[in-house]
Design brief:
The protein is of the alpha/beta class and about 375 residues long. It contains 17 helices and 8 strands. It has 3 domains: about 80 residues, no CATH class; about 140 residues, 3-Layer(aba) Sandwich (Rossmann fold); about 120 residues, Rossmann fold (3-Layer(aba) Sandwich), CATH 3.40.50. The protein has a 4-stranded parallel β-sheet. The protein is globular, with a radius of gyration of 21 Å.
Amino acid sequence: MARLRIDFDLRSKLLRASGGTINLCYQCGSCTASCLISPGLPVRTIMRKAQIGALDDGSSWKCLSCRYCEVTCPRGVRISDVIRGYRIMLYENKSVPERLVECLWKIYDYGNPLGAPRRERLVWAKGLEVFSSGEAAIYSCCMNAYDKRLQYAAKSLVEVLLKAGIKVSVLEGENCCGDVVYNTGEEYYLEELAQSNISVLEKLKPTVILTLSPHCYNMLKNIYPRYGAKPPAPVLHYTQYIAELITSGRIKPGNLNAKVTYHDPCYLGRWSNIYEEPRTIIQHINGVKFVEMEHNRENSLCCGGGGGAFWMENIESRKVTRERLTEAKNTEAELMSTACPYCIRMFEDELKIVRYSIRVVDVVEILRESLR
């Protein structure tokens, strides 16, 4: 029988990380049963180790941070916070997956986890009518800034806003939001990164800060203030802002004859409780027939790329990606829409293998297409 070393200091740290909710766990096993990559991730075992103050063996790195287990937990345990608490300890003990370490160095050296040159950060905005200051400042995710496919979503957002008469500004000198840094447990560098990005935003003096990525939204709105980096204006995910522009009549969607389904990104849905705004945008487009997948809203499945899995190329998460694509295929929709660059990349990469007859698009791309 394996022996566990009990560390009361570790137990206290994890108790604080979970807001005391770890004591509510009575080991029912709902978390493990509902985990999308179970049995690869023994959530129940991790929770028990946290309760008694035993160090994790590294299993927490497999977590997708999707919070699906928290939906089913009858006791309201903040499982994702316990997982991150363990990751902080593992980082301090220098027990981190090599690919995540590589990401951290790329962010430190280049300002993004892709290792792309800083000078190319705003190439996506070339030729667009954007300014150094304006009503809406767009904080572009590293993926939208550098990935040529995902740049189209960023361009679409600018063009839609311009049609509504919104003056748009972009951030010269912005760096990665630090989502992967946060999920790796590197506390000190995250504080430096947050302060740097906020100082850039303050120079723009925006009325509102818009993000394309739910991960960036979560970081700027919820995480940065914990590190003394308060955004100078309200932070919104672009779907919130555009949905309001549509309902107020400032944007009038056009026509698009297509059958469309929608995938709720974990960080937009379960993390941020933004479910209806993307659907509002889609359902206001004339000619669109909207259909839901079997799992939707708080019960939505994950794309398989959260919690750093995208950068680690977690093999176990691929079954999650494929299962979600199968649900989309079963709706017989032509377009699978979502509002997260990670989700788009995960689904499109897996479609190269399964070859389902469905196209993955960002919600703002559908709206832009209808306005042509």
